[in-house]
Amino acid sequence: MLIRSKNFNIAQIANSGQCFRMNEISENKFSMIAYGTYIELEQLDEETVNISCSEEDFHERWVEYFDFKYDYDRIVKELIQGKDQFLKAAAEYGKGIRILKQEPFEMLISYIISQNKNIPSIKNCIERICERYGEKRRSDQGEGVTYYTFPSPDRLAKASAKDLRELKLGYRDEYIINAAQAVVQGELPLEKLMGCSFEEAAAVLKKIRGIGNKVANCILLYGLHHIEAFPVDVWIAKVLKEIYDNRFDVKIYDGYAGIVQQYMFYYMRNLKGV
DNA sequence: ACCCAGGCCTGGA
DNA sequence: TCCAGGCATGGG
After folding, report:
1. φ, ψ for residue A85, nearest 5 deg
2. Arch. (CATH architecture) of A104-223
3. Residue ranges per domain, chain A?
4. Contacts 24+ apart (CB under 8 A), A237-241
């Protein structure tokens, strides 16, 4: 299935720090596991991507997943034509990024893990969790690929702290079990939070141990698609301090600050040579 | 060897 | 409300 879009660059998305199960498997070609499915994506040229799925699957699932209903070109143009020189450069540099609509539960657990870790380490932890608690499946792509789905809430809720500890999650292990149990017991109704206001959803998330302001904003942005969320991690903090002298006004980008944040994050890391 | 990572929690000003 | 220290572990 060929997709043509000015704002769809797989390498940029894979390296934008929002998803942890998209990996380069060969030149310009990436694998991805989401919603229990394995797919491959190949960047053929700047505006063309080949997705290894049927047209039917694409419309049923991936249109939504890659947020194709949202006009990123409008945002990019606005930033490029704007007065903010940093965002102008950031938008130009990362214009192929989109905010994925990833699975809420996977984002909940992934971003609890993410705290005080670098991205390669986060990815390793998540893969270990999938291998231990996910379902082993086989894709018919290429010569056949074995992969593991992200575990269900039920599966993680039943995990023992001792078993999780073997996965080298550090002190986060009990946060994970507790959060999974909150989902199973209905105390943390993730699907429902998509329909709530941003503030309401954030408040519910932050009641869970291990979820502070930053992690809550990531879950809201990447899992619940509240694109007004603005997660501030060490990189965004660097941007706010070094570029804006801590005077950045998020309200200017009211309603889509999360997208602006993503361009900032991706560009700043590039500037610092990550 | 060392510092830092898509931070959070607790305790004390 | 704001700050310091601790946290478990791996990547660079």
Report:
1. -70, -35
2. Orthogonal Bundle (1.10)
3. 2-93, 104-223
4. A238/A268, A238/A272, A239/A86, A239/A264, A239/A265, A239/A268
Which protein residues, judged by their CB atom, are less than 7 Å from any atom of strand B? A 16-18, 111, 114-122, 171, 209-216, 218, 231-236, 261-262, 265, 274
Q: What is the pLDDT of residues A1-28, one digit of tens each?
A: 999 999 999 999 999 999 999 999 999 9
The hierarchical CATH code for the domain A2-93 is 3.30.310.260
> What's the pLDDT tens digit per position in A90-112?
999 999 999 999 999 999 999 99
Chain B footprint positions (protein CB, under 7 Å): 4-9
Strand C atom within 7 Å of A23 CB:
no
Q: Which nucleotide is nearest to A274 (CA to C1')?
A: C12
